[in-house]
């Protein structure tokens, strides 16, 4: 039988308590700081925290929360500082991850889930539809929009009801968060979400077949919009929607291929391609029907189902 | 009669003929110099001009003179084209005119500026006339006779949509079939493992029935690629027909913004030469 040494016990208990004290300090800082670099630093340390380093003290009770909870809370801080539209954080009953409610979208809620990737990272998802908005990798500093699922999300009833202004507010919020993260040397890819950058939105695949443009022509015509040819210094087609023009343009690239992209021309810089996908059923149907070809090129490799 | 005598006799006729050619070239030069486009058209084909503009029946041809400038046709067309195209654009603002490559006398004429706009015909600058695509015209004529919203391929489109519904139904049932197959295979495996080969009559019948069902499901599943191909084909055909319907509708809409009916549109196209020369004469 081993000897029980009070001193050893006391030392281990002290170590464990200091470990949890550090966690306490990190969580306290996450709650109080407004410094975004500090938030990122603290979040990373919380995610790195390994409770198994504690030999004696265990937190195994309703107050233990997974990584996704802390990621959602940290993101909430970014979301709050990025927009005048409020962000409310709630913890639904019997849940272990908080939910985010953005004022602009009162009928939707969001939270982070773990991305099933070897590289790690988290997805921000709308909880009712399980549709991803973005991927956030705190360790490798990556922040990417899921252009395909976000296009689907903006068409859902909850977001449709909220309307164009709400979508604009959310996109501004995303863009502002991205700007903050860019200051922390993040790799940012949010295709099509910034009203000020609606040119050269590259499509997923090169070489559009004539059938795809024919399908857009037919689909648009059924709603009294006309796909017109562009024949000047550019080659492609365009649809005028009031003051806004959707241009589909091609550029010759290496290997004899043509890279297609969208230019959304809006002198007022109020709309993005997602606004149009939300407001124009013909455009959305065509886009979703040819998603793997005409969707905006995003960092598809991190979006795994 | 000496050679000289013969020459003297023939001289006036020859000089007259040469004179008429020189005079023709001088007139053409003057008309071009003074931007008298209508005169240029008259000189290029005086028979047409006299018959259609001056309403003189059976006028003489001046082809023997206009042939003098046959090697200058491209240059003359380049001189005449901007004014003619300008006139036609003002009269038919829904038509687009594209020069035919390496053929300055010809312009391809399209209805509309939309995606896949169809060619209505070919404009000859020197004769100020349009050769129409009769197939397109007959399609438009047939469509214009249909009741509002009707399309030439309505019935075909409905039929293809029905076929597509059926094919999509077959493909969407595939998940159900896969599940059914898995259940049957599980049941068969259970039968075999439980009885270790000692089947009673009832079990044998069950096994046979399950095997038959499995065979049927496997055979149905084998058809999936073939059905998928057929679906692709039908969707392509549907797109082709819908595109043509949309084009005809847009073409008619464009025509009816300027003309009350198709007959007056076609009439106006056939009268381009006359209306253009009259417009030029009024301008002067």
What do these coordinates show?
- The complex is a heterodimer of chains A (305) and B (284).
- The N and C termini of chain A lie far apart (53 Å).
- Chain A has 9 helices and 12 strands.
- In chain A, the strands form 3 sheets. Chain A has a 5-stranded mixed beta sheet. Chain A has a 5-stranded antiparallel beta sheet with strand order 8-12-11-10-9.
- Chain A has helices spanning 6-32, 36-48, 67-82, 147-154, 157-183, 210-221, 273-279, 281-289, 291-294, and strands spanning 87-90, 99-102, 110-114, 122-126, 131-137, 142-145, 187-189, 201-202, 227-231, 235-241, 244-253, 257-265.
- By secondary structure, chain A is α+β, with helices and mostly antiparallel strands.
- Chain B has 284 residues and is of the alpha+beta class.
- Chain B is built from 12 helices and 4 strands; from the N terminus they run H-H-H-H-H-E-E-E-E-H-H-H-H-H-H-H.
- Chain B has a 4-stranded antiparallel beta sheet with strand order 1-2-3-4.
- In chain B, a hairpin with a 2-residue loop joins strand 1 (95-100) and strand 2.
- Chain B is elongated, with a radius of gyration of 36 Å.
- Chain A binds chain B through residues 211, 213-218, 221-222, 226-229, 237, and chain B through 113-117, 236, 239-240, 242-243, 246, 249-250.
Task: Please name the defining characteristics of this protein.
heterodimer, A: 305 residues, alpha+beta, TATA-Binding Protein, five-stranded antiparallel sheet, 9 helices, B: 284 residues, 3 domains, 12 helices, 4 strands, elongated
Span between termini of chain B: 55 Å
Helix content range of chain A: 40-55%
User: Could you give a short account of the major beta sheet of chain B?
Assistant: 4 strands, antiparallel
* Class derived from helix and strand content of chain A: alpha+beta
**Span between termini of chain A:** 53 Å
Examine the coordinates and then state which fold CATH places here, giving the name of the CATH topology of the domain at 201-298 in chain A: TATA-Binding Protein
- Rg of chain B, please? 36 Å
What is the top-level CATH class of the domain at 201-298 in chain A? Alpha Beta
Oligomer: heterodimer
**Share in helix of chain B:** 55-70%
Shape of chain A: elongated
| Broad structural category of chain B | alpha+beta
List low-pLDDT spans of chain A: none
How many domain units of chain B? 3
Helix and strand pattern of chain A = HHHEEEEEEHHEEHEEEEHHH
Kindly report the average pLDDT value of chain B.
Answer: 91
Count of DSSP H/I helices of chain B: 12
Which H/E pattern describes the elements of chain B? HHHHHEEEEHHHHHHH
Strand order of the largest sheet of chain A: 3-4-5-6-7
């Amino acid at each position: 039988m081993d000897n029980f040494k009070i001193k050893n016990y006391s030392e281990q208990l002290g170590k464990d308590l200091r470990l949890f004290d550090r966690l306490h300090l990190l969580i306290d800082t996450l709650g109080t700081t407004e410094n975004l670099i500090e938030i990122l630093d603290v979040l990373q340390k919380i995610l790195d925290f390994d409770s198994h380093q504690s030999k004696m003290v265990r937190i195994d009770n309703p107050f233990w929360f997974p990584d996704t909870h802390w990621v959602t809370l940290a993101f909430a801080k970014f979301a709050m500082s990025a927009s005048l539209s409020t962000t409310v954080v709630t913890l639904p009953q019997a849940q272990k991850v908080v939910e985010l409610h953005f004022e602009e979208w009162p009928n939707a809620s969001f939270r982070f889930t773990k991305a099933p990737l070897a590289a790690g990272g988290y997805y921000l998802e709308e909880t009712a539809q399980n549709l991803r908005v973005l991927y956030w990798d705190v360790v490798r500093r990556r922040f990417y929009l899921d252009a395909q699922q976000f296009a689907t999300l903006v068409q859902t009833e909850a977001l449709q009801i909220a309307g164009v202004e709400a979508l604009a507010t959310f996109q501004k919020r995303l863009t502002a968060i991205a700007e903050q993260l860019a200051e922390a040397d993040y790799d940012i890819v949010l295709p099509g979400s910034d009203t000020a950058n609606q040119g050269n939105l590259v499509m997923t695949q090169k070489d559009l077949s004539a059938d795809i443009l024919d399908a857009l022509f037919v689909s648009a015509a059924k709603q009294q919009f006309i796909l017109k040819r562009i024949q000047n210094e550019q080659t492609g087609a365009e649809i005028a929607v009031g003051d806004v023009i959707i241009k589909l343009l091609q550029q010759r690239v290496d290997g004899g291929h043509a890279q297609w992209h969208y230019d959304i021309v809006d002198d007022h810089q109020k709309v993005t391609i997602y606004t149009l996908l939300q407001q124009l059923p013909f455009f959305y149907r065509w886009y979703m029907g040819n998603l793997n070809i005409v969707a905006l090129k995003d960092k598809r490799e991190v979006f795994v189902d | 009669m000496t050679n000289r005598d013969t020459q003297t006799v023939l001289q006036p006729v020859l000089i007259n003929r040469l004179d008429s050619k020189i005079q023709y070239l001088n007139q053409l030069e003057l008309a071009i110099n003074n931007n008298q486009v209508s005169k240029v058209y008259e000189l290029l084909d005086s028979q047409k001009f006299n018959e259609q503009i001056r309403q003189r029946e059976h006028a003489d041809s001046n082809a023997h003179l206009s042939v003098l400038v046959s090697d200058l046709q491209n240059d003359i067309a380049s001189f005449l084209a901007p004014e003619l195209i300008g006139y036609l654009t003002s009269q038919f603002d829904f038509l687009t005119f594209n020069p035919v490559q390496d053929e300055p006398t010809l312009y391809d004429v399209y209805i509309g500026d939309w995606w896949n706009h169809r060619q209505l015909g070919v404009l000859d600058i020197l004769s100020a006339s349009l050769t129409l695509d009769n197939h397109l015209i007959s399609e438009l004529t047939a469509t214009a006779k249909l009741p509002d919203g009707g399309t030439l391929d309505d019935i075909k489109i409905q039929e293809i949509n029905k076929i597509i519904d059926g094919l999509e139904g077959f493909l969407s049932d595939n998940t159900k079939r896969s599940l059914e197959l898995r259940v049957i295979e599980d049941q068969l495996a259970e039968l075999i493992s439980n009885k270790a080969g000692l089947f009673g009559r009832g079990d044998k019948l069950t096994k046979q029935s399950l095997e038959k069902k499995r065979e049927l499901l496997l055979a149905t599943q084998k058809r999936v690629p073939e059905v998928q191909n057929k679906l692709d084909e039908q969707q392509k055909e549907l797109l082709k027909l819908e595109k043509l319907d949309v084009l005809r509708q847009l073409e008619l809409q464009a025509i009816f913004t300027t003309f009350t009916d198709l007959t007056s549109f076609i009439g106006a196209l056939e009268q381009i030469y006359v209306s253009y020369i009259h417009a030029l004469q009024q301008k002067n």
